[in-house]
Amino acid sequence: MIKRFKQLTLATSLAVACFAAALPAAQAAEEQFFMIPSYRVGPYGANGQSFYGGFIDYLTYVNMKGGIDGVQIAWEECETEYNNAKGVECYERLKSKAQKAPGPIHTMSTGISYALADKATADHLPLAMMGYGLTMAVDGSVFPWLFPLVTTYQMQASAIVKFLKDKSGGSLEGKKIVYLYHDSAYGKEPILALQAESRLNKFTLIEIPVAHPGNEQGAQWQRIRQEKPDYVILWGWGVMNMTALNTAQKMGFPREKMVGGWWSGSEEDVIPAGDAAKGYTSATWNVAGKDVPLIADIEKTVYGAGKGNLKDTSKLGTILYNRGVSAAVLSVEAIRTAQAKFGKGKAMGPEQVRWGLEHLNLTEARLKELGATGLLPEVKTSCSNHEGSGKVKMQQWDGKKWVPLTDWIEGNKALIHPLFQADAQKYAKEKGITPRDCSKE
Amino acid sequence: MFYRETGQFKTSYAADQQIFPIRQDRIGIGILLFVAFVVIPLTAGNYWFNAILIPFLIFALAALGLNILTGYAGQLSLGSAAFMAVGAYAAYNFQVRIEGMPVLLSFVLAGLTAAGVGILFGLPSLRIKGFYLAVATLAAQFFIVWCLTKFPYLSNNSSSGVISVPGVEILGFRFDSPQSRYLLVLTIVALLALAAKNMVRSTTGRAWMAVRDMDVAAEVIGIRLMRTKLLAFAVSSFYCGVAGALYAFCYLGSVEPDGFSLDLSFKILFMIIVGGVGSILGSFLGAAFILLVPIFLDIALPWFSELLHLPFDGATVSHIQLMVFGALIMFFLIVEPHGLARLWQIGKEKLRLWPFPH
User: Fold this and answer.
1) How many Cβ pairs within 8 Å bridge chains A and B?
2) A397 CB-near residues (< 8 Å, 6+ apart)
């Protein structure tokens, strides 16, 4: 019996090897192909499901409404498990299909974005990093193919400082702010910006790192209790957020004085924390809820026709779902912008899509046409500014839902953008890249 | 029939002691090298280079490193990913900080740095064994990743802690295309594998195996335990360090400390367990199995479920992939606890007799 098993396995392995050799596939005509390196399993699977559910639902919605001026959208998903190596494998696998008429690639992972940055630039494929990733790519002169659209960690940190400043009567002088962060690339990125802000606004900044995954924060909060800060800025991810909220409650630190970044402000973060999350504020670049006409329409059209991507429809209208929709809206709008210049009703090539992303102009009027008023801020990109907005909204958790507190707040661009440029110049020098001259674009 | 060595007479010690004493094996390895060095670079596509062949070779090298330590010298280690991290960051620092540094020299220095760190964390092996030693190497895993996160100097003050490596250039030739990078990695891996094979056949390797099988007995017959064990740690970490440098420079292009997590260490450990503990070939087979089977399942399962009209969506397929992969590992371990290398050996024995079993 065992002997036969062995023979069988040997034979199977051979068959596997032969089959794997015959894989490459063909590409159909006149359609825009989106490669979607998504994640639905693994430690962050729940976040990925909402985001990519929203993303794909919007693409389906556009197709049902006749495509992008007649051009249908095709896509293929590939599971990355939020793992850099798997992300690269997915990218390489789907690359050949996307080379003719690509959509912007969204990885929803800082690590994968970093790993793909050079590859996408070399292969001429536009890589979008909305609210994550290589933030210095805001400087499009060095990074023509990378688009950290809407806003970046640094601008968000700056906007949060601005919000706190308004909250404490126009000045932060002499105040103490704790920055409690996930000790990784993601958490470290805003530190320089916060330090610059603390010099400018004369507040004391205390940086406290939390090691991954952050499910034990006793020591950190002990320190916070000793320091007695005026505010805590929370920069967590996954389980770290709810632990922070719970520990804050245990230590008696008021949640009203805690402000989170946008990865610390989804339903997935606050609902598990229960009561401890009430009164907690976070930043976001897209609102939650189904009262945005576009989201309601997607539910009616796409889910009405039984073509929805999510099995669990309670996720519709959550922060991350709406963020996925917003990402898809921007991607499709970029292709529309490109079509307006290079010919309507045609599939756009990589260079054309890149042009579209670089000349996005999503005005309030256009957002209204799309039914997305208030879903995301206005976005206007250019060669020297691949970010395009830099605005966030503050929202507060009332125990049941996120309630918007403010209008769009813009970070201090004059302070933050030079930081990006300095980083980008250093990067260009290290890698031997000659920056484009943006005045000629 | 295929492996009948009738008529192959060995008339000198050199002939008797060569790596492949049977002519068929020599022809086989010749063909394999020819395919790897000539046929594949001419025929394979970018996907194969970037997503399959390069990572396969790099992980095979890391597995080889761990196999020297665990398979030959019997010292269980859970710190392979950390030693890879040391290699990656060391190579990056040598490359960025020293003007005009040849990249191959950086790789060697990266390996040596990793070897130094390996010796340091190998010191506990002089007192503790088995699972307890695994825990001590676990400390290396956490300490090194923490260190690389903690000190900005090590990542050249990058604001995010992620390093983005400069391009690889040797004697004015830039290794930009996937083919050229594949050939570079292949050459390094082939040379190091040859070195490993010779090392384990030499006095050093025999000393390692003696220590593995019974260290008291080894000591009694005059093997210096400290030297032997620390040498195993050094050589193993050197291999992992070079693998780490290649991982950063020829595969991902940018790495962060978190990428070298315990998960990766486990993955390398699984490679040698599935491939064959104490076998050079096993390191390669194991790396291929652990890396390629998930990719294969990822591609084949959706196709399969479509063919049979099964109602699986993307997420379910991903879950099934993990389940099938886990089941396959268990299956292989039950059927052949000595790994794929042993299967190959059994296959060879069979082919020797085939078609006449007696």
Assistant:
1) 119
2) A270, A277, A278, A279, A280, A281, A282, A403
d(C-alpha B51, C-alpha B43), whole Å: 15
pLDDT digits (tens, 9 = 90+) for B258-298: 889 898 999 999 999 999 998 999 999 999 999 988 888 88
Domain ranges in chain A?
A: 30-151+289-390+419-440, 154-284
- Which residues are B164's β-sheet partners? B254
Residues B144 and B161: their CA atoms lie apart, in Å, by 14
At the topology level, CATH places domain A30-151+289-390+419-440 in Rossmann fold (3.40.50)
Residue A141: Cβ-neighbour burial (10 angstroms; 0-12, 13-18, 19+): buried
Cβ atoms within 10 A of the Cβ of B11, count? 7
A118-130 pLDDT, tens digit per residue, is 889 989 999 999 8
Please name which of A357, A297, A351, A306 lies closest in space to residue A327, comparing C-alpha atoms. A357
Q: Contacts of residue B346 in chain A, CB cutoff 8 Å?
A: 6
Report d(CA A303, CA A310) in Å as an integer.
9
- H/E stretch holding A363: none
Of residues B159, B296, B322, nearest to A189 (C-beta): B159
Instruction: Quote the CA–CA distance of B260 and A184 in Å, as a whole number.
Output: 12
Model pTM score: 0.84
Q: Fill in the amino acid letter for A372.
A: A
